[in-house]
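S2.1 Query sequence (Legume-like lectin family protein)
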Amino acid sequence: MRPTPPSVLAAWLVAAAGSAEAAQNFLVDNLSFGYSGRINPQGQQSVPGFTLHGQPNTPEILSNKVILTQPSPGNARGAVWGDNPNQYTQWVADVDFRANGPERGSGNFNIWLVRRGAQDVGSASIYTVNRFEGLALVVDRYGGGAGMIRGFLNDGNTDYRTQPSVDSLAFGHCDYSYRNLGRPSQIKLRQSHNNFKVEIDGRLCFETDKVSLPTGYNFGLTAASADNPDSFEVFKMVVMTEDLSAQGGAPPSHQQHQQQQHQDQVVMNRGGYNSEKNMPRGGGNNGNEPFDDSIPDQSADTITSTKAQFADLHNRIQSINHHLSTIFRTVASHGTIGEKRHEETSSSIHDVKMLLAKLDRLDGMQNQLNTIDRDVVNLKNDLRDVSRKVTDSENNIKRLLGDSHGTMLEHVAVQTSPRHGTLIFVIIGTQIMLIAAYILYERKKTSPKKYL
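Output structure tokens follow.
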């Protein structure tokens, strides 16, 4: 839908207000979506760099938004999880969402930054999640009010699902009426080197200097609706940082090693090393192996002065330091690769478990189909037996009726044949009686009368 002129003006004002910040922050595209106005620039039904989960349905992807929970049915869940972890110690996460629903609708919207979010959290909310390691920012109608934004932290030891009062674990909150605004709401999470804060629609919600989230965590968005459902829509999630090269992938205990690596890098650059590939410039056999800059062995007789001995010792110690630094970087990269492969393996195992669960349901359906097939065969046999019995009964009835009807016709013919003798006798007898009665009447009429 094309925006109206006032909305365009508002968009320009917001862009102008954030121009100073945009000049200092850079987009992390593999942790973001929707920043170009479209969820998928290719027009496909997917979110690049993110994975979708949902119950009972997967979130719906439109051109400019992702609908985590539909207006119906209720008790639905939806989630969008980033495939790549956040490797920056200082960052800004900008999320635009909107909630629509009936007058008494309810639900909750959750912004996560947790380790192994897709596996440990999935499509759960703060009230149904078990153990997780990281941050959860929850938007819901806590306490029956118009709305509230609250922050929760967990180090992986607290099981939120078994807590008698999850709401008491919040470390920061602010009131915010988020439902049925007719426009997207903007939540910004900012982490700098000395504080963490949350902003809503350009104003401060809460901040603290006691929270600093480590690197290696995944961003995710989840929503859950109730019996009277709210529809939660996400228009964008944008992650920015001040320096794209300033990644803090290693844990804090390795900071000294990182500093040592930086010093080694400077020494390597001064000593004829290429800073891009950590390779010697023109040295070695093929220029691809990191140990091709080895100092050739020399006879001790060739070192005739203290200065030459010190130079040879210095060069060899420097070479050893370079080799140790290369080994450390190789081991660190292998550890990162192993961790990533472990996460990929865990994700694959989770997918395999889901497929196995579906296969179990298919086995159950196959057993039910076999049972139905046996029941149908038995029913056909029973119907065949019943049909045969009905045919036999019909034949028996026909034979019985044929015999009975023949005897009955003979009986009716005998019993209902006319009897003329009786009829004649009755007629004649009646006439005789009438004549006798008339004669008696006449005699009585002509007989002499007696007077008293």
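The first helix runs from residue 5 to 17. Confidence is low (pLDDT under 50) at residues 1-23, 249-292.
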